[in-house]
Write a structure and sequence with these properties.
Helix content: 40-55%
Distance between the termini: 62 Å
Strand content: 15-25%
CATH topology of the largest domain: D-Maltodextrin-Binding Protein, domain 2
Number of domains: 2
Number of strands: 11
Order of helices and strands: HEEHHEHEHEHEHEHEHEEHHHEH
Radius of gyration: 20 Å
CATH superfamily of the largest domain: Periplasmic binding protein-like II
Largest sheet: 9 strands, mixed
Length: 282
């Protein structure tokens, strides 16, 4: 009987855990108000940890970070496996809000995309007039190009640039990695290929990249805005804390963390704040 009761208590305890319990890439804080957030680069590069630590200290909360690109993060939100997400896929974000399974779409900052490649630039993209022209030159030269191919925000933007170029990429030169930003950037460096990376990852990794250079940047189309999306009220146990976190990230204190992040370590901030990003938010 005692064993049966113990098993029953264990089952009830497990049932009370959030749906995402055990799936955390990292957990920040140990407070009772637990919430979960899915994102890619802001977590991978450490910005999320700084934001979470500042928030948790004042709210008695803990944050479960699940590492996922924008496409996967949106899926986790739709399936109620995350309380909130930070993503850079504007069309998909707006669709989620329109369909009613996401709220709280808030601009929090930006970076931009760089097209990097071998220093010799065999496709000659340094002379391209815009991002679409750069991709057309890569395709014409059949120069090695790496695509994440994972439905992430980066992959969605890459496909939009290919559409602008008028090219449907295919062939041995077009390599799909199904991997995250940092891993794909390092592979491009190792194998001498072109890749579209976000500026934040480039700044964080550049000291270790021996074969790549920034060959094209500056097209306004390549500005990369980040937004939050949250579960509707009452949809998940951590929804209210997630909404409070969104308010913090948008506050002066949260925005200062975003604008300053990386400056000490890399010599420059690696994200822009929402005030800057607003110029490019559509």
């Amino acid at each position: 009987m005692r064993r049966t009761l113990s098993l029953l208590v264990l089952v009830l305890a497990l049932a009370a855990l959030p749906a995402w319990a055990g799936d955390c890439t990292a957990t920040y804080g140990a407070g009772a108000k637990a919430f979960s957030l899915a994102t890619g680069s802001p977590g991978e590069l450490g910005l999320l940890e700084q934001l979470a630590n500042a928030f948790n200290a004042k709210h008695g909360s803990s944050l479960c970070w699940m590492k996922a690109g924008s496409g996967a993060s949106l899926k986790l939100l739709k399936e109620k496996q995350a309380d909130m997400i930070m993503v850079h896929a504007p069309a998909a974000e707006k669709a989620a809000v329109g369909e009613g399974w996401a709220v709280g779409r808030t601009l929090i900052g930006s970076n931009e995309f760089y097209i990097v490649g071998p220093k010799a630039d065999p496709a000659g993209i340094a002379k391209a007039k815009d991002a679409g022209d750069a991709y057309a030159k890569i395709a014409a030269a059949k120069a090695t190009f790496f695509s994440r191919g994972d439905n992430s925000g980066t992959h969605k933007k890459e496909l939009a640039v290919w559409e602008k170029s008028g090219v449907k990429p295919a062939g041995d030169w077009y390599i799909v990695t199904k991997d995250f930003m940092m891993a794909t950037l390092k592979r491009a460096d190792a194998e001498g290929g072109y890749f579209m990376t976000d500026s934040s990852t480039w700044i964080a990794a550049r000291k270790d990249l021996k074969g790549l250079s920034i060959l094209f940047k500056g097209d306004p189309f390549l500005v990369n805005t980040y937004h939050t999306l949250v579960q509707p009220a009452g949809a998940t146990p951590g929804q209210a804390t997630a909404m409070a976190f969104v308010e913090f990230v948008g506050s002066a204190a949260g925005q200062k963390i975003i604008a300053d992040y990386g400056a000490k370590e890399y010599g420059e901030g690696i994200y822009n704040d929402a005030a800057y990003a607003k110029k490019y938010d559509h």
